[in-house]
Write a structure and sequence with these properties.
mainly alpha, about 0% strand
């Protein structure tokens, strides 16, 4: 594979515009070389820089290569305590999350950031999930033990209600 180190290094720039430019360039390269996703996954797995993580997440959102799905979930889990996961969750909107209902529902319930809640809500309401009765029971327990506001609990209850009819 051609050496794309210079562009990958640009993802780590302290200047957001440069990181975003590198992200856009890598998306364009992906159109002719889908192995670029492996380099982006590597960045996601190893980066500590917020710019690199967010720019990579945006590139992976555009690319939507299923190969990157697990890496996005792992990056969310790894950074959950820092509460810097908004762009990573936003990236998941373009992926098929049908087997990850509880992961996405938990993001909605336990996030205290509006943008994470919005992206997880979008996934929960726009995608079709494979949900068992046990998953719904677990989700109800998660919801009962959450600190969500009355309005947000009502939204979550409606999501569960909709899924229980499917």
């Amino acid at each position: 594979m051609k050496d794309y180190r210079e562009i990958i290094n640009q993802l780590y720039s302290e200047n957001w515009d440069e990181s975003l430019e590198a992200s856009d360039r890598l998306v364009k390269i992906y159109e002719s070389n889908n192995q670029i996703v492996d380099l982006l996954i590597e960045v996601l797995e190893n980066a500590e820089s917020d710019n690199a993580i967010n720019a990579t997440a945006l590139a992976l959102r555009e690319i939507s290569d299923n190969k990157a799905f697990d890496a996005l979930l792992k990056a969310i889990e790894k950074r959950k305590s820092s509460n810097n996961i908004s762009t990573l969750v936003y990236a998941l909107e373009n992926y098929n999350c049908k087997n990850h209902f509880l992961d996405i529902f938990s993001l909605f319930v336990f996030s205290n950031k509006a943008d994470v809640m919005l992206s997880s809500y979008n996934i929960l309401t726009e995608q079709v999930f494979e949900v068992s009765r046990e998953d719904l029971n677990i989700a109800q327990k998660i919801l009962n033990n959450s600190g969500l506001s009355y309005e947000d609990k009502d939204i979550a209850h409606n999501i569960l209600k909709r899924l229980s009819y499917l």
